[in-house]
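hi! just following up on the protien thing from before. the input was this:
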Amino acid sequence: MGESSDSVSIDINMLPFEGKEYVVKTSGGSITVYVCGDQEKPALITYPDVALNYMSCFQGLFFCPEAASLLLHNFCIYHIDAPGHELGADVISSDVPLLSVDDLADQVAEVLDFFRLKEVLCLGVTAGAYILTLFAMKYKERVLGLILVSPICKAPSWTEWLYNKVLFPS
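and the predicted 3d structure came back as:
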């Protein structure tokens, strides 16, 4: 048997999550935005699913060398974390009013204003996809396109449920 090599070479200058963290004050409170790449390039904003932050939600995509190379060479990535979901977040006090998904969509617009971004491409996962869809419907002129992963915003119908059970049995 020949020897196998399981080593991977990583260019330290191209780490996918190399960037700068910003705390953006919005009308709904402060949120964290992690910016990766050259801010002169077109903007791609990401919004993760519930209970996830940008690292836990998007690391699979951005640690894939082909995807990271394509995305980081062509876009500046703005990872928006929902309030209380950023790395090292404190427990949210029960005194703090909960934000609606419409409030979260408006926060996205405030983030764009903070960075002086006129138009963006949006990438959202599940709840993040729903929030970015609401953002796109409300601020059409600011959205170049949507990439939505599992954008379910309501319970599946019985037909959809059965279809998934037949195609993907457990």
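The longest strand covers residues 29-36.
The longest helix spans residues 101-114.
cheers
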